Amino acid sequence: MKSVLSFSVASICLLLLLAFSATASSGDRQESFQRCLSSCVQVDCAPDAPALPLHLRLLFWACDSNCDYKCQRKLTREAQATGGDIHQYHGKWPFVRIWGIQEPASVIFSLLNGYMHLKSWPLVRQTLPKMHPMRLWLSVFIVLGSWAWLWSAVFHTRDFPLTEKLDYFSAGLNVLYIFFLGVVRMLRLSTWRQTRVVAIFCAIPYCLHVGYLSFVRFDYGYNMMANAIVGLVSNVVWFVVAYQAYRNGQPMWWKPAILIVLTDMAFSLEAFDFPPFLDTFDAHSLWHAATIPIVAHWYDYLVRDARWDSHIEQQRKD
Length: 318
Prior knowledge:
This protein has 318 residues and is mainly α. Helices cover 74% and strands 0% of the residues.
């Protein structure tokens, strides 16, 4: 268990180091990019220039943003042909867009993650009795998980300040809720009177966090640090849950610990920030891909755990 926790800590610390050591994208500083952009805007944004195709305008592409994309792709193709370095632009790799979608792989994998949450609704609602306390909290988890991955898909479709904030804020809420869910399970809280203290404890710092990023400064490093700290504490909580399950003789006591390690391994893919192969799949999209099966296993464990807990409680009453 100690080695598992050490891996979790190491993974998060590595990501924090990368967050605070990030610099401006090298592609933005290239003179060739600036020249290409300037000449493209003069032509494509002229009053008599033809309008962009409808599918691009529907996703809010304009002549200047389209020129930015065209120059990124032009310089990237030249670098690929000559074996040169592939540069990032505006903090992102120069992906090939599909139907106007900026990062198609991340969009598809985000939607699949959201689907894995949604498809668990019948499992939770039909398997757990209406009076079981975890039935409500797992239902909320499905809603928040689906919401978070929806905004992830929207953000990767078109990167705007608003879609970026909605993606980050909903993802942060999902991370915090997993911590909340672990505390509820660890302390065996069964009523709202017992649970509301934990809910308020989580809600106040989250609101302050969102307020700071919205009205004071949108700090990428701070946002990642906050999410990483909550994620680390959440991991500790779920390790405690696994230990409690072990002490109670639960057959699948090991599963939350394994799922935490797998989640951290998927998260660690962010450290391998390589240029996208096939101009589509980068480390970030592969992270999203890796979490798809993990979501299903989490729900399987959480429902089984809730049913086992009910079984133990009934035995104690008898």
